[in-house]
Amino acid sequence: VSGGAAGSGLDVRCTTLDARGKVSSMVAHVPKDELCRRYGIQPRDLRKLDSAVPTSVPTILSRRNCIILTMLHLRVVITAQEVTIFDSVGSEDSWLKGVFIWSLEHALKATGKAAHGLPYEFRALESCLISVVTALETDLANVRSHVVELLAHMEDHIDRENLRLLLHYSRKLSVFQKRATLVQECLDELLANDEDLANMYLTAKAQDKPRADDDHEEIELLLESFSKQCEEIVSEVETLEANVRHTEDIIELILDSNRNSLLGLDLRVSIATLGLTAGALVAGLFGMLLNRIEESPFAFPLVSMTTFALAAFVTSFGLRRLARLRRVNLGWRDEVRQLQVGDKWGMGGRRGGKGGHASTTGAAARRRRD
Q1: Which of 239, 323, 336, 348 is most deeply packed, by most CB within 10 A?
Q2: 141-179, pLDDT tens digit by residue?
Q3: 369: domain range?
Q4: What's the CATH code of the domain at 36?
Q5: What is the rounded CA–CA span in Å between residue 267 and residue 81?
Q6: 66 in any annotated domain
Q7: In a domain, 57, yes or no
Q8: What is the pLDDT of residues 76-118, one digit of tens each?
């Protein structure tokens, strides 16, 4: 790949594999105009290959002479005779691309039965999709192990740190589900376009034997296989998210119950304080206004008993009102109890008396009672 001006190139590391699966070149600066001439594509098609543009949305573009794939850590251009992998300089996913290049070399070197009758471009595309699915499965296994361990630990102990981790993994699962769903949607969208599927037979077009729009069984089976794998990953992530949501709901119920218990304790203390205050009121009245009974031997016991009785009455009245307010009645229990009583005494038969069977049942029930 020839060099060019710094302002007109892509600041990426470019690795090219030839038709025999060998690395033919590695450069750190690729001019855009050279890429457009080499692959016969428009500059807009290179937008996903630019290191300055994030590749959050996976795409597979079928062009006249090449296939442009941008998924997760991969940005690849596939032709009928070579594969070019683009890697941002200093990318954190460079080690993933190193493993991908190693597996791609073995796939491209395969011939005969080892190639399963697939042309060069399909073997390269299959290696790309295997790398994508493997990356998703690795991330899923990592997140799943942490989530399962955290949920098992929270069954016995819930604290602030566990709640923070639960929120962290919940967000991580949401992001991962979005990534996996986008990959699946990308594959399904490509499967729904017969023209793009037929255009992906680059070797056939290079041999002047283009495929018809409805003649794409090999590539369709290939893409369907990986689409099903992505669907399984998305389903498993949804299951994990459902478990996390259920745990969050249970934690909210527990916290609400604890909060209600604290509020109930506060109300009980307030009611007890009110009872004691009522008793203190009598003591105050006794000290200020009850004259000429200090000499009576029954005055102090009588006033004391009256004070305690008043305090106990106020406290018990307040606690009963509190228990009545806190009682939860769903309403349907009384209806079910009434239906059970009605069935026991034959009420159900009389209510359904429009039919002969109901009337007979009601009559039989009345005869048994008689």
Answers
A1: 348
A2: 999 999 988 888 888 888 888 888 888 989 999 999 999
A3: 331-370
A4: 2.40.128.330
A5: 81
A6: yes
A7: yes
A8: 889 888 888 887 545 555 666 777 778 888 878 766 444 567 8
Contacts of 118 (CB under 8 A, 6+ apart): 126, 218, 222
> 61, 90, 119 — which closes off a domain?
90
Which pLDDT value is given to residue 354? 44
Q: Measured on CA atoms in the order 54, 129, 40, 105, is the torsion positive or negative?
A: positive
- Is 154 within a domain? no
**Which of 34, 61, 90 represents a domain boundary (last residue)?**
90
Local structure of residue 154 (DSSP, 8 states): H
Structural domain tally of the chain?
A: 2
Which residues are CB-neighbours of 34 under 8 A, at least 6 positions away?
Answer: 1, 2, 4
CB 115 within 8 Å of CB 54: no
Count of residues for the chain?
A: 370
In a domain, 217, yes or no: no
Spatial contact of 190 and 223, defined as CB atoms under 8 Å apart: yes
Q: Are 215 and 140 in contact (CB under 8 A)?
A: no
HSE-up of residue 227 (Cα within 13 Å, Cβ side) = 14
